[in-house]
Amino acid sequence: MKELIVEADRMNLPEVQTFIDEQLEEAGCPMLTQTTIDIAVEELFVNIASYAYGDGNGKAVVQVTVFEEPLSVEITFIDNGVQYDPLAKADPDTTLSAKERKKGGLGIFMVKNTMDNVSYEYKDGKNILTIKKNLN
Amino acid sequence: MGLFGKKEKNAASNMSSKSNLDIEVKKDGAEYTFLLNGRLDTITSPNLDAKINEATPDAEKLIFDLTNLDYISSAGLRVLLGATQAMEDKGEMVVCNLTEPVKEVFELTGFNRLFTIE
Question: Are residues A38 and B71, on separate chains, in Cβ contact within 8 Å?
Fold first, then answer.
């Protein structure tokens, strides 16, 4: 398992994605899958940066583990901010017209629908969100 | 400045390519074409939003050429949704030349039905 700890600030997004991509490239992850994972990483990290600590500062922990059989990756995001389960949010209605569409909820919707597994728990004062994705 | 060592500077410049978007705007009367090159993400999308807002008061047609856009997150989708909503009663919006990763995002989120795709 590899771990990165950064200030939960959206300007640290490139650092987080670079860290994830290094592990994915080493594992031989296909480019399109890497982009899909990058998007999920952005949505989850930016969520923490935007909401976990209100106007204050705090850390985000990102852990990556690559498994061989089958080739897959597990990425966990941990913060000490306010308790919040992003998975509980209702999905946006993707059949609405442009006029009726709302701007919220698209990010988590994409995470839920592109990853093979997404789970959330609140434990010891920490939000722990884990995504899993097969790389083949 | 002088606060950052050489090593940190290099690391920062490597990562800046990670979140980069070049925007070229072409104006032909009331028709605006936005050529996007790079990644439309949380960090880069406010820049596109600002350029669209400059154009929309007198625009009758917005064209987004995504030939060289290889990444879009929900932040980018929100900017495109805002643009099509701004054009709702006064013109049209066309999105063309979608790359594979962008096409996948559009299909998943239903954005392929929100504007004309060419």
Answer: yes
What are the residue ranges of helices labelled H in chain B?
A: 6-16, 45-55, 74-87, 100-109
- Torsion region of B61: left, alpha or beta (phi above 0 gives left; psi -120 to 50 gives alpha): beta
Q: Does the residue B5 lie in any domain?
A: no
Domain containing residue A20: CATH number: 3.30.565.10
Strand partners, A66: A73
Q: What percent of chain A is modeled with pLDDT above 90? A: 94
What pLDDT, in 10s, does the model give residues B23-62?
999 999 999 999 999 999 999 999 999 999 999 889 999 9
Q: What's the rounded mean pLDDT across residues A71-87?
A: 97
Count of CB atoms situated within 10 Å of the CB of A73: 23
Å between A124 CA and nearest CA of chain B: 30
User: Chain B residues contacting A, CB < 8 Å?
Assistant: 14-16, 18-19, 41-43, 70-75, 77-78, 81-82, 84-85, 88, 100-101, 104-105, 108-110, 113-115
Q: Name chain B contacts of A107, Cβ cutoff 8 Å.
A: 73-75
pTM across the whole model = 0.92
CA distance A1 to chain B (A): 22
Residue B76 lies in a domain: yes
CATH number, domain at B30? 3.30.750.24
Domain that includes residue A43, residue range? 2-134
